[in-house]
Structure formats: structure tokens, C-alpha cells
Amino acid sequence: MDSGLKEEVKRYIERSEETLTVARLLLHNQKYPATGSRAYLVMFYAVCAVVRAKNLDTSKHSGVISLFGCHFAKDNIIDPRFHKMITKTFDDRDVADYSIFAEMIDKVAEQRVADAEAFLQEMKRFLQEENWLDSHL
What we know:
- This protein has a single domain, classed as Up-down Bundle (Four Helix Bundle (Hemerythrin (Met), subunit A)), CATH 1.20.120.
- It is mainly α.
- The longest helix is centred in the first third of the chain and has 26 residues, at 3-28.
- The radius of gyration is 15 Å and the shape is globular.
- It is built from 5 helices and no strands.
């Protein structure tokens, strides 16, 4: 196992965890569109870790999501519901970040944070099983 790649995977997970903390703070402060955007980034960083663990790479968010779908969800290596989850949250983030009229209600923002937490936990579980992460992370 390439130690540089293992460090990259670990750093993606650490970034995901930091971003989850920010998403929770935004939710607490009723900044719902920003909460949704950060919830997506929690998932994005976590999925980057998984994709990189397979030594795959792309420069676009949509490409990372597609690689995840093709190499993990399609073959049920990781439950396909997580691919659907990140795809939905990516769409929400696109609206929240680029539409000046975007609104996100509290219940949706709360759900996105809950989804981000579940997503991160599942990616960490997978990476630990595959010996990419220590079990204490």
C-alpha cells in the first residue's frame, strides 16, 4: 500500500470531519443553504478518499461521483443508497451555491447534515475494513 496515497486518504477524511463540524455550526445558526452546501462537501471529501483508495482520480465533482457510482455502488461494494445520497445532495448544493433565490428549510438542512454524518461513517467503515484508515479515526 502506497504510504503517500494512504496519507492522502486520511487527509480527505480529516477534511470531511472538519467540514461536518462547520455544517453543524451553520445549521445551529440557521444558515440553511450554506448548511446544505457544507453537507455536500462532507460527502465529497469522504468519497474522494474512497475513490483515491482505488487509485482513481478526476478533477471534477461530477467525475468523482460518477467514479464512485461505477466502481463502488454499481457492484454493491458500498450500498448504492450512498451514491443516491451524494447525487441528491450535489444537486441541492448546486442550487444553494448558484441560485440567489435558493431557499432551504430547516428540516431539509437537518436531513442533509444527518445524511452527511451517515455518509462519512460509511466511508470510514469501508476504508477501515480495507486497511486505509486506522480504527481510531
